[in-house]
UniProtKB/TrEMBL annotation:
Species annotation: Dactylosporangium maewongense
Full protein name: Peroxidase
Coiled coil: none
Signal sequence region: 1-31
Record-linked Pfam families: An_peroxidase (PF03098)
Subcellular localization: Secreted
SUPFAM superfamilies, A to Z: Heme-dependent peroxidases
InterPro entries recorded: Haem_peroxidase_animal (IPR019791), Haem_peroxidase_sf (IPR010255), Haem_peroxidase_sf_animal (IPR037120)
Keywords: Glycoprotein, Secreted, Signal
Region described as Disordered: 161-186
Membrane-spanning ranges: none
Entries under PANTHER family matching the protein: CHORION PEROXIDASE, OXIDASE/PEROXIDASE
Organism domain of life: Bacteria
Amino acid sequence: MGHRIGKLVPFSVQVVALAVVAAGGTAVALAADVAPGFSGRHRPPGRGGGVDLEVQSLDGSGNNRAHPRWGSAGQPYSRVAPARYADGRSAMVQGPDVRWVSNRVFNDTNQNIFSDRRVSQWGFVWGQFVDHTIGLREEGTAEKADIAFSAADPLESFTNTLGGIPFTRSRPAPRPAPGGGPRQQTNLVSSYVDAWAVYGGTRERLEWLREGPVDGDLTNNGPHLLLQDGYLPRRDSRGDPGTAPAMAVDGMLLGRPGRAVVAGDQRANENIGLTAVQTLFAREHNRVVDLLPATLSAEQRFQIARRVVIAEQQFITYEQFLPALGVTLPRYRGYRPDVDASLSNEFATVGYRAHSMIHGELEVSSAADRYSTAVLDQLRRGGVQVEADGADVELAVPLNVAYFNPDLVPALQLGPLLRGIGAEAEYRNDEQIDNQLRSVLFQVPVAGNPQCLDGPALPQCFRGVVDLGAIDVQRGRDHGIPGYNQLRRAYGLPARRTFRAITGEATEEWPRDPRLTAGKEVDDPSALDFVALFDAAGKRVDPASEEASTSVTRGVRRTALAARLKAVYGSVDRVDAFVGMVAEPHVRGTEFGELQLAIWSRQFQALRDGDRFFYRTDPGLEMIRRVYGVDFRRSLGDIIALNTDIARSDLAPDVLLV
């Protein structure tokens, strides 16, 4: 979810030139230049030529020399398909009430269904880290489009004293001229995979994040990022929190915003998994700085470390994250200056919203003596489920406790938390969304209720409803995203003519079932019952067993999804793009249906091919490896082990897979 930030300014440094002796005694000449950063040249002894050490700008400008604003912050999202508005310009296309749709399509009725390819929870945690690097919509002001909520809906199990679900339209991008085309939206961050989430996009934010004074002069900053006992700084770490960079706060942080952690992206407090990976890469930056010779200037060590961290984020994204999800791109043929890497509206608003993957809780397992009795008691009071078993302890953190609760990261400790993220599979990427996101997003439980863990008791813990699935559909209408079939055509896929063709099911009709109320099946709660559960081996799972909450990868419901979609929409051409996309069966060997896979493949290919600093084409990275012995080619598990007290042998070879 986006939050507005201030004007974005390219990074620049003063002109510096020096000669140093790098690791191994190799002579290196480095020079600094004006914006977008310092540049330099390495000339191996006895050879001519050199290697530019140009540093990419903080805001993405200048990456493409012929089109310097392509992919840069503050530009409108690109579009693959023409915008679709009711009046051709701005008015949202109407459709079924989206909470009503959510109750019939996204409602998981508290049944966990896991990735059948055993993608770990790193799938959604790393995905969010990348998301906060490449996309941030500009929020609106007072243009409300609240989502209707009906307490009389037979499929509604939650109470909402607000009477509706708040929704504000994204701020429209300025049109090039009066009457100059349909409404567009702005991406406030750089589209490139450039570790924006670690460093931010303005020199003001970066200066605050770096060790040293905050006086408007970056030349007196140290090479390290500011950490406190190895954890991200808080807004009050430098004194007055009012002078700290803006950070989004919600939930538990609303009453104490000064305790929000500060990072390159303002959404770093959103959940503890995200806060943990932000912390990991701040530590990694400092680790790389410490590998560089002290004879380099602070600015040079900072920029070399930033370059390595950017390459690491790219390397993990393209060598681990995408393959784990089954995304295979065409062969890389080098940088293409004719490719615009800008994030598309379709990707940001529909394709990358894989919220069904998000697990309802994060689990941490560790030796019991790692935590004091006082800490375990504190965790219990905070809503964490603590189960001691001899020398071991199991900690389960429901998402409603993990939201905007950065104090949990040092309490749980970074190493165990990061290991725990990789120890269990994420949820299956499908149409079902956990109620932690589908109904209680970011809310604080009502006082006096028991521990609000995920499950049937969850509605008793809250008096409001915030439905991320419903918001996903509404955001598509807000941004003028075409309907499902229109979007399929835009991505070169044939339109679907029946609802069963969308879902891959054998029927789109209601079954003859005495448990269903004839003629009112779409409003019958029994329509959502699971009648069969299966594990990854295809073995049937007893609904009353422990395995039903830990091992299920496929479920069969009393009614076909196609039948429910038909009752909701009537015509396949009325289906919202997001709803149709998540309803599709997976392409074999992937976590995605056809449309979502096409959206991801197109966007990640553009982010790769249109990036002049991509790790596979950037000669400066090879120079850094050769001269300083610092190699960016490390897996996520390697980086966790290098920056925590968790041994590499205690992590999976590929932490993206369980």
